[in-house]
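Handout, section B. The chain below has 247 residues.
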Amino acid sequence: MLPEYSLIAWLLIIFSVYLTGVSKGGFAGGFGTLSVPLMALAISPTQAAGLLLPLLLVMDVFAVKAWWGKHDRAEVWRFVPGLFIGVTVGTLLFGSLSEQGVRLALGILSVVFAAYMLLKPVAKKPISSRWALPAASVCGFTSFIAHAGAPPMNMYLMPRKLTKETFIATCTVTYAVVNTIKLGPYMWLGEVNMTSAWASLLLVPVAWIGVRNGLWLQSRVNEKLFYRLVILAMFLVGINLVWQAVS
């Protein structure tokens, strides 16, 4: 049985799913962080997160298939322990967290980091891989709360000076891992249920079209412009999260 959403709600959901697919296909998840806040304009954030997770897993299958072999395996393995830590903390704190507080903190971090990268885009040397664990832990936590793992992951990976393809592929595989980790807790907590699953199934074609369009677009964007777009996405996501938190 499908949830009884208004027409406006369905239009926002369809657009959000498409935007997430484009982002996963070719923009390292940067724009996809807007999805839950956009959907939350019409439905509750919890409903939005539960509806989106099965679709994220479907998108991950398409995206990982396209990018597999181009990722930095060492970076992905560095992330795995932190992702488990972040998801575990999110699960344990579920129901006791201030969703607005998490959004506000993540939004401010995103805006500050994006501003820093725009004003000082060239670092003397890549940051240490020791930052992988804290970055992945925050990614797992924010991804669990609102599918907003991109900002903390970008904060670590962008200064690592990966090529565009390696950056996208590494993000793609990492997000597939964290979304898989989240599935069990989401089902246990009831965020993914039969009603949300039917809505997710209905939107699979939208997810597929989004990923395909993202793959097509990224091949036509040069590396410098790509990173500028990711930074811009982080800035817009940050502003959106702050606005959601204070409104």
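Note. The two ends are 32 Å apart (CA to CA). Compare this with the example in section A.
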